[in-house]
Amino acid sequence: MEISRLDNPHRIFFADEFGSVSRMDELPESATVVDVYKRIIDTLVQETRLSASSSDLVESGRYSNAPAHQRFNDFIQSLSSLQRQTLAELLQEERDGAIHDVLAVLSWWVDCHDVGFTYRGEDMPVDLSGMGMHGDYVGRRDGWEWPSDEEG
Question: CA-based Rg of the chain, rounded to a whole angstrom?
């Protein structure tokens, strides 16, 4: 994974082995621990879970430009358009499930073993939905609005 700031010193860009680029805006000085937590979950929903290779997979039969993935490309190119679409949906479900499962494990560690997250030395909330980090992720992915500051 390559990390660079490109032309803007307030943004960090990540490029993975597939060539996908994610933008991580730095937080303003006034950001609270709740703001940071919401940003983490929203980044997982809006950037991390979305695979740029999905459209390439369906349209051109390409999963990745990485030489080690040529066998995947060969397989995908042998599929019909409908089969490629189905495969793209399956891969998206798996990616969503993996993110959910990692957050569920982290939530378990927070709940059962007193693990915590901090931002600038302040304890960060890790459950605004009442269903753990994984619940916040699923809710935001499915269109749930964050509670107002007075609610959460």
Answer: 18
